[in-house]
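re: that chain from earlier
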Amino acid sequence: MQSKNGIIEITKMENKKSLFSKHKGRIIFWALIGLAFTVAVYRFSDLQELWRNIKQSNPLFISLAIFAQFFYFCLFTITYKISFQMVNIKYTFRRLFPLTFAYIFVNVVAPTFGASGPALFATEASHRKDSPIRVLAGVLIANVAQFLTFSVILLFGIFYLYTTKDLKLYQIIAASLLLALTAFLCSLFFLALKKPSALRYYLHWQIDLINKFFAFIRRKKRLSDVWVDDGVKEFVLASKNITRQKDKIKNLVIVYFFVHAVNIISLYFIFLAFNQHILFRALIAGFVMGVLFQIVGITPYGIGLTETAMALTFTSLDVPTETAVLITLTFRGITFWLPFLIGFILLRKVHIFGLKDISVVKIILENKHVENIRKAIRVRLIDIEK
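^ sequence. v structure.
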């Protein structure tokens, strides 16, 4: 009898574990979303006072700032479209637009030092039977162009802060980190074009570290040496294809300068909305410091660091502290938190999260039988290797 009761108890415990396993993916997903909203509420704990101040601002200029941001994201989507065209991946603007917002959302709720966004593009490409490696090459060239064009504006802002004796050590360190990151990304293309063997060696080393981590957490290896070798070959071909398209490279750089210009204009509209005068040079300096810490900050999209750096820079340039904080929070609300919420809403537009999707992501979220997951992973890895 006791044995029978023990079996019943064990069965109940297994059923509870099975129930948790069945919804584990969704529980984690929604927990991450809850965490993201908790961070948002924490960072805007004084939301009521902020809203009262916004209502006292000029609604026309606030509306213009929001419209400028809409135009900004349209241009940002175009940069990715150009980048993917350079690696022979065809995306329509309508397909890419929700992906651009979802890119922000997944980078926040699944912070992996900026790797979640590119992984989203790669998984979407695999779903469309495109090459994930070529898509990642497109994302890489887009990031390089973004960082290079921003670095030009950054140097102007740093020079102005130096002339006004307001340049701080932490700003120099952050700028150096961005330049180092840009140089590293450029080196990947250089290695692909000049030293493919060195790139292959580097990626094998990275994959070995990842596989050791999987072994530590008792998971089987998911990336093979053969997959890395094939991936390097495809990345080399994509890199050579990019270097042949000088017109598209030029167009990409021009559009990115427009992207930064529209972002700056949006910030200037917010200054006008609060009737705060600011010199153009000071506006650039505060802007570049905010964007700089959004890129190199250790928190997702520089949450907390961006607001602090931008507000401190404006304050050092004779903008009243209260106004500087208010303008900074409003700018971040329009340029980050609003797109973040839109990304959450548009997430269903992304194929890998769609209701009709039969990809590995959905199977894992629904947590079918283990054997089905293994089969799905094998099928997906075969598709990727092809």
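Confidence is low (pLDDT under 50) at residues 353-374, 376-386.
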